[in-house]
Amino acid sequence: MNPGMIKKLQKMQRDMVRAQKELEASTFYGSAGGKMVTVEFTGDKTMKDIVIDPEAMESPEDIEMVQDTIIAAVNDCMKKIDSETESTMSQFTGGGMPGLF
């Protein structure tokens, strides 16, 4: 393989690793139920915080609704992480290397 091409590939690999680390260190927020539930995750999909609006718990029957809302908020945040990861990493793959990440 051409030495110039090897250097380009090595640089691309270093850039990809740096971008992945930056994504993992980023903070993402998801919410559901009109911000009744808000969650905070890092880019490596570690939950850091969950905030439940106190007004969401007016009665015991609200527990199931809040649980469903938590699931929706977490899923919202996961989609944001996946979207940002795909957007960031596609600059390296050009969308032409499926299964790389």
How would you sum up this structure in a few lines?
This protein is 54% helix and 18% strand. It is α+β, with helices and mostly antiparallel strands. It is rod-shaped, with a radius of gyration of 19 Å.
Q: Uncertain runs with pLDDT below 50, 5 residues or more?
A: none
Q: Output the strand order for the largest sheet.
A: 1-2-3
Q: How much of the polypeptide forms β-strand, as a percent range?
A: 15-25%
Largest sheet: 3 strands, antiparallel
Distance between the termini: 24 Å
Would you report the number of β strands? 3
Shape: rod-shaped
Q: What do you see in this structure?
A:
The chain has helices spanning 3-25, 62-93; strands at residues 27-32, 37-42, 47-52. It is an alpha+beta fold. Strands 1-2-3 form a three-stranded antiparallel sheet. Strand 1 and strand 2 (37-42) form a beta hairpin. Helix 1 (3-25) runs antiparallel to helix 2. The two termini are 24 Å apart.
Features:
single chain; 3 strands; rod-shaped; alpha+beta
Please outline the helices and strands.
Layout: H1 3-25, E1 27-32, E2 37-42, E3 47-52, H2 62-93
Antiparallel strand pairs: 1-2, 2-3
